[in-house]
Design brief:
This protein is of the alpha+beta class and 156 residues long. The chain contains five helices and four strands, in the order αβαβαααββ.
């Protein structure tokens, strides 16, 4: 509810939006007032879902979008390559110096993996691309900042 209230305040007067509260683990139970939406957005919620739940939400959203409707997803992506983790730490340190906040605190890939809570399951970028395709959408990475991505997908 707090996230919806913040979004409503931030976008007040900037267009016609329909804010909907629901449990993404059970998208079929979310009651929408109509179909054929132009845009659907989720922000920092997908990493809490199991992969099968992520895929179910993508399919559900596809079914509610207008032709060429867009789904915008902002969330964490999973880091998977221990050999490249030192570069990730260097980037996080730079972001902290430049922007004054840190992305994540982990001294090693093993510490990063150990820090994942059971409900913190970010997917790999390639997984999102595959799942969007399987749901009948084309997707494009719009922005990547550390391990936070913004991806858009359009219904075909």
């Amino acid at each position: 509810e707090a996230s919806l209230a913040a979004a409503a305040e931030r976008f007040d007067g900037r267009g016609d939006y329909q804010w909907v509260k629901g449990d993404l683990r059970a998208p079929g139970e979310i009651s929408l007032p109509r179909a054929d939406y132009r845009v659907a957005v989720t922000c920092l919620t997908f990493h809490d879902l199991a992969d099968v739940e992520k895929q179910a939400v993508m399919s559900w959203i596809t079914g509610h979008l207008a032709r060429d409707g867009m789904f915008v997803l902002m969330d964490r992506i999973r880091l998977t390559e221990p050999v490249l983790f030192g570069s990730q730490i260097a980037l996080w340190n730079r972001l902290e110096r430049v922007h004054g906040f840190t992305m994540r605190a982990a001294d090693s890939f093993e510490a990063y993996e150990a820090d994942m809570a059971s409900n913190n399951r970010p997917a790999r970028l390639v997984d999102y691309q595959t799942w969007f395709h399987e749901a009948g959408m084309v997707s494009q990475l719009l922005h990547l900042h550390g391990h936070i991505m913004v991806m858009a997908a359009a219904r075909l």
